[in-house]
Specification:
Length: 65
């Protein structure tokens, strides 16, 4: 997990993955790798059933292709 991606347990098998790269959550070339690593870590856990993606800033990043 990178310093810009934070996770927390919301209970009932749901984790929150928060993007916290202020002030506007700009994405850099390393972000997708950290994001995929976080999702892989969640999928390897038997107790995680869902993930909520959220932003700690007012701006949520655009979808990248």
């Amino acid at each position: 997990m990178t310093e810009f991606l934070q996770s927390r347990d919301l209970g009932d098998g749901v984790m929150a993955l928060t993007l916290a790269r202020g002030p506007v959550n700009a994405l850099d070339p390393d972000f997708p790798y950290g994001f995929v690593d976080a999702l892989n870590n969640f999928s390897a856990r038997d107790d995680v059933r869902g993930v909520v993606l959220e932003s700690a800033c007012k701006v949520f990043p655009p979808v990248w292709t």
